[in-house]
Amino acid sequence: MYSKVEQAFIVNFYYNQDELYLAEDDLKECEMLAMTAGVQIIMKENIHLRNIDSAYFITRGKLEIIKYKVKDHKINVLIVNKELKPVQVRNLEEYLKVKVIGRTELILDIFAQHARTSEAKIQVELAQLRYLLPRLTGYGILLSRLGGGIGTRGPGETKLEYDRRHILRRISTLQKKLKDIEKHHQVISKNRTMKVVTLVGYTNAGKTTLFNALTHENLKTGNSLFVTLDPTIRKVSLDNEQNFILLSDTVGFIKELPHSLVASFKATLSEVKNSDLVLHVIDIQDRNIEAKIKTVEEVIAELGLEVRHSVIVFNKIDKMKDQGKITRFTNLYPESVFVSAREKINIDNLKKIILIKAGKNNGL
Fold first, then answer.
1. Is 253 exposed, middle or buried (0-12, 13-18, 19+ CB in 10 A)?
2. What count of other Cβ atoms lies within 10 Å of the Cβ of residue 71?
3. Among 45, 73, 107, where does a domain finish?
4. For a Cys staple, 277 with which of 76, 122, 196, 358, CB 3.0–4.6 Å?
5. Domain limits for position 308
6. Entry pTM
7. Is 76 exposed, middle or buried, given 0-12, 13-18 or 19+ CB atoms closer than 10 A?
8. Beta strand segments in 223-363, E
9. Same-domain pairing of 203 and 351
10. Among 137, 42, 38, 46, which Cα is nearest to 85's?
11. Which backbone phi and psi does 59 adopt, to 5 degrees?
C-alpha cells in the first residue's frame, strides 16, 4: 500500500486566532520530530478547527481539502500533531488512502530508533505495549503495519502480533526488569562518594552540548530531538582538579510527552531524584520559555521526582540579539546563569555556581 520513501504532510490544529503563534511553534516542533524519524516532509500546515469530529477528528470540510492535497502532491503519510483514537486513525486511513500517524506514535517511533542499550530497549518496548493495550479493539488496519516504516519500528515492533494476554504478561515481565534496574541505580547512588549534578530540560535546549562543554566529551548532538535516551555520567573537575562532581545528562522533555513513555522512563530519570543539584537548561532564544519551563516541571512532578536544589541555566546567549531579554530573565530568575555551551561562554562561572550549590555547602 505504501512506497518505501515516506513522503509526509504534517497537519497541526488551533481553535482560535489567539493560539496561532503557539500553533506555529507546535508545527515547527512536529516538523523536527518527523525529520528525526527520517520522514521526507512535502507539506506542513496549521489548520483552524472550530470543532473536533468524533469519527475523523478533522471536520469533513477540512478533510476534503486535505484529501485533495494528499492526492495532488503524492503524499503517502499524514502526520497529525494530536493524540488520535484508533477509530479515527482507521477512518482517516480509509478515507485518505494513506498511512496516518498521530503525535504519540511519532514520538514512540523516534524513541524506538534511538534505543541502544538494553535498558532503553526495555523502556521503549514497555511504552509501546502500554500504548497498544487499550487500543487493541478496533485497531483493524493498523495491525497490518508490521515492517511498514514509521510507527512500526523498534525493539517492540513484534507487539502487533501479540494478543491481550500476551501483552499483559510481557508488560509484567518488563516492569519487573525495570524495577530491578531501578534498585540497581539506587544501590549505585548510595555508594557514590561524589556529589551528583543532573542536566534536565526541554529537548533541543542544548543539554548535551553543555554536557560536552563541562566534561570535554564529544557526545553526539544535533538539530534533532531525543538524541539522548540513556543517562550518561562523567566525572567533572570544578576547580583545577581539586573538587570533582559526577555530571549526568538525561533524556529531553517535550510537551504532551506520552504518559506511557513517561512511566517507562522513570528508572532512567531517577538520576534527577538522586541528584544534589539539578541544572535546568533552557534555550533563551525560545519564544515560549515559560511554557517550556512548566512542561519540564510537570514531567518531573508526574514522575514524583523531588528536586532538592536547582539552578536555571539559560543557554545559547551567543545567538541572542535582544540583550533586553537577558535583563528581563535576570530579574525574573535572579539566581539563574547565562551561558553559551557551544562557544563555552560563562562555563567557568557556571562551574563556580555548581561548586557553591552542590559542593562547599554540602561537604564536597
1. buried
2. 12
3. 107
4. 358
5. 194-362
6. 0.81
7. buried
8. 232-237, 244-249, 277-283, 310-315, 337-338
9. yes
10. 137
11. -65, 155
Question: Which tens digit of pLDDT belongs to each residue from 269-284?
Answer: 777 877 889 999 999 9
Q: Which residue has the cell 498511512?
A: 99
Q: Specify the number of domains making up the chain.
A: 2
Q: What is the CATH number of the domain that holds 27?
A: 3.40.50.11060
Cell of 165: 494476554
Same domain, 83 and 202: no
Q: Would you say residue 188 lies in a domain?
A: no
What is the Cα–Cα distance from 171 to 140, expressed in whole angstroms? 22
pLDDT (tens digit per residue) in 20-68? 888 998 999 899 899 988 899 999 999 999 889 999 999 999 999 999 9
DSSP state letter for 48: E
| Domain shared by 199 and 95, yes or no | no
> Which of 56, 76, 107 is where one domain is finished?
107
Do residue 94 and residue 219 come from a single domain? no
Could you tell me whether strands 77-80 and 232-237 are parallel, antiparallel, or unpaired per DSSP bridges?
unpaired
